[in-house]
């Protein structure tokens, strides 16, 4: 009983941390994006609300939740709302298997900063990611509007194609690590003194592309192409429901997939790595906090890279996107898989 | 019991999502007017009354391909985990498996399943 | 003036019995009877080389019988000659749809405005008004204020009841307004559905460059057929022209194509000057100023095109960079002319006022800095893989299409035909400045993009030469024409009392969008009898249904942006 209570309290604390990170930080990432975009475009960005626009996400959130709830005339109400639930819940649940740092002790209890440390962590990630297709297809269908339908079919086609690509791309690191648990993968990278990035460059690049495509960011954001489809499948949604779709797609999913990418390729919470030799930690003065800071830094780096691409590149056409996935990236992942299988024994020595 | 945290989190998130669904209804104004919920078609009357008609079968073909390759991935995952202990036998066996499935992809490619945007001959 | 001479048509006189050739200093007409019209047009197109369709419309003479005089303007690109074919009719005409597709759209407009029935036309619907509209507005018996037969309460009445007194009590009867049923009838008549889904890419959409209404017949993502419904911005400019003096009409010309306002103004002013015959009286300084301002406006317009084009394809940052440069240009134009958008700076005989102090220095600073910016953007876009994949091979227009659809401007130049009015029929200071015309090879969207970028550089060249010439002119040089005989020919600065003799002319200018032409028919007096405006954007747009056939919707934006239409000019 006692153990259960202690467990529940720890779980509660972890959930609060994750929610704060995901929903709170996710909202502030909108501000980060707007500021970065503005500075790329030589203008200041949001400056009015709060000092240099720091209260802007709060203002946006308040505005969105006080809008009128308009439902399209001929839509399907149950599916319409279900799509929203199916979009939000799985995307945030991915954070249950993301390890933020190494195990530490508090009050005599060993606590791992990961909510669910199961030995099939990665499978859980991909299972939850696949539910995103449901959300989009249902949203487009339930709205009963042609623009919504076309947009949702496009997006579903893209996600379906890149699901396969991402599944095959991560098999490389799994071979090298020998386990599907995210915590163990990072542990193995630290033990082998090797970030898998150095031996898996192809897989990393393909993973990045698949990240861009799954989350609907440029150059694969044909779905939100304002000039053609005017916000695509979210065209009949209003208020906070409309605000949640980009939040989930563009920010929460990018964060979660970047976190998984960091875990798989960049060594999770380990500091800078010199392959096969060891680790160099310029932030050693932070003591026990340094692994968490490293993790956050690496995820932030990937996120900034995604942002940078958004405001520079034009976007591809839908048939070019699906063609690239099946004709170029999937064969590359096969090649990568075979190569990894060959060189793995050398890595294990 | 490993999944206890996951379950609790799932319930919490479900609650938040349902809150979001009804937040606009609770907090927003209610001022219905005659054309406010007309489906968006750029401000003009709809040509086709309902959008839930047939759509292009190319998407269905992509779904089929996804099914095949996801099942292949499901077979490959256990192999990747225990590859360390399988030795050369495991490598050759999986190489053959992947080779056969690549052949399937090539077949789909040649049959035009991946070029479903344009049905007639299209010179790029 | 590149009008054809009588000698070219002597042998045609033998074949067509009713052919009469009329040569005037401002125009060359071929009069023919209605029954032989199609044969003559065919002969001109295929044998004599008058392949480019410029315009077609009708002039209404209610006192005469037959009532309407139809005219067709054709152009020979290789020999640089123009001809006008005229015929008289009472209400029906044979359709020239098979000879030129652009004629199909011109005929729809004549049916809409005059009520002329075209035999052999495939889908004779109204061009600008909705299908159930009962009147034909450009006929002389249709009053200028329209027929008020609809009761529409004003906003004040809706909000606060009808208690407005005196001058505020507006008349509540209005000219007809389309209802939702009318719009539905219009769209059903315009496009007969053949495939799965008909999508309205409609007037209220951020992707179309203005309020154009497209109908896509879709099969999945592929467009099976496509048509355009115009008229959302129709303001009846041609009807208004019959009621305005020549200088009063000047302010309408820049509100049509509001992005290239100075070029449109210049085209109108040059047309009236040619009709009066006072081209040589316009002082040199005024000509250089008009040319320089036109070229600044051309860069302005191309920057807007580049910004919105990049925005539609997805490179969002170029939009803001281009608009930053546009702000600088508009500040320059505002400093010189006083207005940013609808400018009306040229006048018949010169310009409104002289250049202010410091204008030339500011322009020189801009010219020095701009090429570097342009090079920066080119490194982002021109060799970018995504950009190339989106744009090459899309929307290919071949040479025959240019003649068949009446395409002009950058669209024609992108397909390899060096058609530029500034070189073919120079006006203002264009004979005295050196510049090149960029010409594309394949005629796809990428070529048109490169052509317009290069045109910006050539405009910079022209501006530099104009600035150096203007610096060397004395400060007291005149900027407005002086009439040699004020009793016979009055050329006032404000244009009141400017009398134009009887005659007609077609004259065009090179807008950034295409060829903007004015056909002016004058019966003496201070107001024109009929003004037909030849919009470059409208005939450029009529190739759009052909380009969109069997393409994906995603290409719709790229192709439309490359054609660069402005609805104000299409709808007038």
Instruction: Report the span from N to C terminus of chain A.
Output: 46 Å
Strand content of chain A: under 5%
State the order of secondary-structure elements of chain A, H for helix, E for strand. HHHEEHHHHHHHHEEHH
Which strand order does the major sheet of chain A show?
A: 1-2
Oligomeric description of these chains: heterotrimer
- Class from secondary-structure proportions of chain B: mainly alpha
Largest interface pair: A-B, 78 and 65 residues
Average pLDDT of chain A works out at: 82
Overall geometric form of chain B: flat
How many helices of chain A in DSSP terms?
Answer: 13
Q: Sketch the major β-sheet of chain B.
A: none
Q: Could you tell me the mean pLDDT of chain B?
A: 78
Strand percent estimate of chain B: under 5%
Tell me what the structure shows.
Helices cover 66% and strands 3% of the residues of chain A. Chain A is mostly helical and 349 residues long. The longest helix of chain A is centred in the first third of the chain and has 39 residues. The relative contact order of chain A is 0.13. Chain B has 124 residues and is an all-alpha fold. Chain B is flat, with a radius of gyration of 25 Å. Chain B starts with a helix and ends in a 14-residue tail after the last helix. With 572 residues, chain C is of the alpha+beta class. In chain C, helix 10 runs antiparallel to helix 11. The two termini of chain C are 27 Å apart. Chains in contact: A-B, A-C, B-C. Chains A and B meet through helix 1, helix 3, helix 4, helix 5 and helix 6 of A and helix 1, helix 2 and helix 3 of B.
Task: Chart the SSEs and their pairings.
The complex is a heterotrimer of chains A (349), B (124) and C (572).
Chain A (H helix, E strand, L loop, with lengths): L1 H39 L15 H10 L11 H17 L10 E3 L2 E3 L9 H23 L2 H24 L1 H7 L4 H10 L4 H4 L1 H14 L11 H4 L9 H27 L6 E3 L3 E3 L9 H21 L7 H31 L1
Helix pairs in contact in A: 1-2, 1-11, 2-11, 3-4, 3-11, 4-5, 5-9, 5-13, 6-13, 9-11, 11-12
Chain B lengths: L3 H24 L30 H25 L4 H24 L14
Chain C lengths: L9 H6 L4 E4 L4 E4 L5 H10 L5 E9 L7 E9 L4 E9 L2 E3 L6 H14 L2 E3 L30 E2 L3 H6 L12 E2 L5 H11 L6 E5 L11 E7 L2 E8 L7 H5 L8 H7 L4 H16 L7 H30 L2 H22 L8 E2 L2 E2 L7 H23 L3 H7 L7 H6 L5 H5 L6 H4 L20 H28 L29 E10 L2 E10 L6 E5 L1 H6 L2 H5 L4 H11 L3 H5 L1
Parallel strand pairs in C: 2-5, 6-7
Antiparallel strand pairs in C: 1-2, 3-4, 4-5, 8-9, 10-11, 11-12, 13-14, 15-16, 16-17
Helix pairs in contact in C: 7-8, 8-9, 9-10, 9-16, 9-19, 10-11, 11-16, 16-19
């Amino acid at each position: 009983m006692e153990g259960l209570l202690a467990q529940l309290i720890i779980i509660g604390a972890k959930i609060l941390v994750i929610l704060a990170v995901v929903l709170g930080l996710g909202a502030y990432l909108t501000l980060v994006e707007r500021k970065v975009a503005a500075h790329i475009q030589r203008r200041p960005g949001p400056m009015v609300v709060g000092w240099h626009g720091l209260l802007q996400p709060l203002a946006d959130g308040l505005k969105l939740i006080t809008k009128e709830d308009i439902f399209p005339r001929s839509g399907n109400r149950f599916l319409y709302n279900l799509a929203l639930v199916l979009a939000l819940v799985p995307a945030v649940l991915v954070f249950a298997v993301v390890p933020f740092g190494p195990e530490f002790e508090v009050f005599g209890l060993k606590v791992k900063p990961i909510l669910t440390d199961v030995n099939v962590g990665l499978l859980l990630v991909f299972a939850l990611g696949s539910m995103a297709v449901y959300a989009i297809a249902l949203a487009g269908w339930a709205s009963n509007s042609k623009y919504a339908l076309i947009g949702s079919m496009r997006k579903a086609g893209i996600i379906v194609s890149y699901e396969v690509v991402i599944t095959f791309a991560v098999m490389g690191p799994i071979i090298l690590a020998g386990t599907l648990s995210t915590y163990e993968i990072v542990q193995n990278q630290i033990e082998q003194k090797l970030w898998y990035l150095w031996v898996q460059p192809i897989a990393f690049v393909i993973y990045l592309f698949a990240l861009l495509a799954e989350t609907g960011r440029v150059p694969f954001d044909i779905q939100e192409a304002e000039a053609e489809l005017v916000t695509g499948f979210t065209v009949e949604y209003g208020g906070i429901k409309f605000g949640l779709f980009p939040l989930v797609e563009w920010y929460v999913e990018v964060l979660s997939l970047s976190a998984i990418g960091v875990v798989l390729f960049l060594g999770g919470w380990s500091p800078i790595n010199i392959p096969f030799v060891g680790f160099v930690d310029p932030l050693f003065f932070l003591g026990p906090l340094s692994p968490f800071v490293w993790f956050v830094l690496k995820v932030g780096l990937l996120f900034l890279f995604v942002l940078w691409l958004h405001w520079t590149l034009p976007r591809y056409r839908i048939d070019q996107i699906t063609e690239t996935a099946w004709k170029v990236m999937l064969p590359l992942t096969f090649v990568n898989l075979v190569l990894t299988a060959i060189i793995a024994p050398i890595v294990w020595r | 019991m490993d999944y206890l945290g996951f379950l609790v989190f799932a319930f919490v998130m479900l609650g938040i999502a349902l809150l979001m669904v009804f937040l606009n209804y609770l907090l927003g104004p209610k001022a219905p007017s005659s054309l406010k919920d007309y489906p968006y078609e750029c401000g003009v009357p709809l040509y086709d009354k309902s959008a839930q008609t047939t759509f292009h079968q190319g998407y269905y073909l992509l779904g089929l391909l996804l099914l095949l390759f996801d099942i292949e991935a499901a077979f490959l995952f256990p192999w990747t985990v225990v590859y360390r202990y399988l030795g050369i036998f495991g490598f050759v066996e999986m190489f053959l498996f992947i080779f056969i499935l690549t052949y399937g992809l090539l077949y789909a490619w040649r049959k035009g399943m991946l070029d479903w945007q344009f049905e007639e001959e299209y010179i790029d | 003036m590149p009008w054809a001479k009588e000698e070219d048509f002597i042998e045609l006189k033998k074949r067509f019995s009713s052919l009469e050739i009329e040569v005037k200093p401002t125009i060359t007409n071929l009069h023919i009877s209605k029954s032989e019209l199609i044969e003559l047009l065919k002969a001109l197109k295929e044998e004599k080389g008058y392949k480019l369709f410029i315009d077609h419309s009708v002039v209404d003479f209610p006192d005469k019988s037959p009532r309407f005089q139809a005219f067709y303007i054709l152009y020979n690109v290789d020999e640089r000659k123009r001809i006008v074919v005229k015929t008289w009719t009472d209400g029906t005409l044979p359709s020239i749809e098979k000879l030129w597709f652009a004629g199909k759209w011109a005929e729809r407009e004549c049916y809409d405005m005059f009520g002329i029935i075209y035999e052999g036309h495939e889908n004779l619907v109204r061009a600008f008004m909705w299908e159930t509209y009962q009147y034909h507005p450009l006929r002389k018996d249709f009053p200028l204020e329209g027929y008020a037969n609809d009761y529409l309460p004003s906003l004040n009445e809706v909000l606060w009841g009808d208690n407005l007194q005196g001058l505020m009590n507006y008349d509540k009867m209005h000219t007809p307004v389309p209802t939702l049923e009318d719009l539905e009838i219009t769209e059903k008549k315009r496009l007969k559905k053949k495939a799965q889904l008909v999508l309205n890419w409609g007037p209220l959409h951020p992707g179309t460059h203005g309020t154009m209404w497209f109908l896509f017949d879709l099969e999945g993502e592929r467009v099976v057929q496509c048509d355009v419904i115009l008229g959302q911005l129709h303001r009846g400019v041609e009807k208004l022209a019959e009621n305005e003096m020549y200088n009063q009409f000047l302010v309408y010309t820049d509100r049509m194509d509001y992005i290239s306002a100075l070029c449109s103004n210049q085209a109108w002013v040059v047309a009236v000057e040619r009709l009066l015959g006072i081209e040589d009286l316009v002082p040199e300084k005024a000509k250089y100023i008009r040319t320089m301002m036109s070229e600044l406006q051309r860069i302005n317009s191309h920057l807007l095109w580049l910004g919105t084009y990049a925005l539609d394809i997805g490179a969002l940052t170029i939009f803001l960079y281009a608009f930053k440069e546009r702000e600088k240009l508009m500040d320059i134009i505002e400093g010189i002319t006083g207005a940013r958008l609808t400018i009306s700076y040229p006048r018949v005989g010169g310009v409104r006022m002289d250049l202010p102090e410091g204008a030339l220095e500011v322009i020189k600073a801009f010219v020095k800095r701009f090429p570097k910016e342009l090079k920066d953007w080119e490194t982002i876009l021109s060799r970018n893989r995504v950009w190339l994949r989106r744009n090459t091979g899309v929307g290919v227009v071949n040479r025959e299409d240019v003649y068949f659809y009446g395409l002009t401007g950058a669209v024609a130049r992108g397909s390899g035909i060096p058609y530029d009015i500034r070189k073919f029929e120079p006006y203002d200071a264009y004979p005295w400045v050196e510049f090149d015309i960029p010409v594309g090879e394949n005629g796809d969207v990428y070529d048109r993009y490169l052509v317009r970028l290069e045109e910006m550089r050539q405009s910079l060249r022209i501006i530099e030469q104009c600035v150096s010439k203007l610096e060397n002119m004395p400060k007291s040089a005149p900027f407005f024409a002086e009439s040699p005989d004020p009793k016979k020919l009055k050329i006032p600065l404000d244009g009141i009392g400017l009398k134009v003799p009887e005659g007609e002319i077609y004259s065009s200018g090179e807008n950034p969008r295409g060829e903007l032409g004015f056909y002016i028919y004058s019966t003496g007096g201070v107001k024109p009898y009929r003004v037909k405006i030849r919009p470059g954007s409208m005939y450029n747009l009529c190739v759009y249904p052909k380009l969109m056939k069997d393409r994906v919707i995603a290409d719709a934006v790229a192709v439309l942006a490359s054609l660069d239409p402005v609805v104000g000019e299409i709808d007038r």
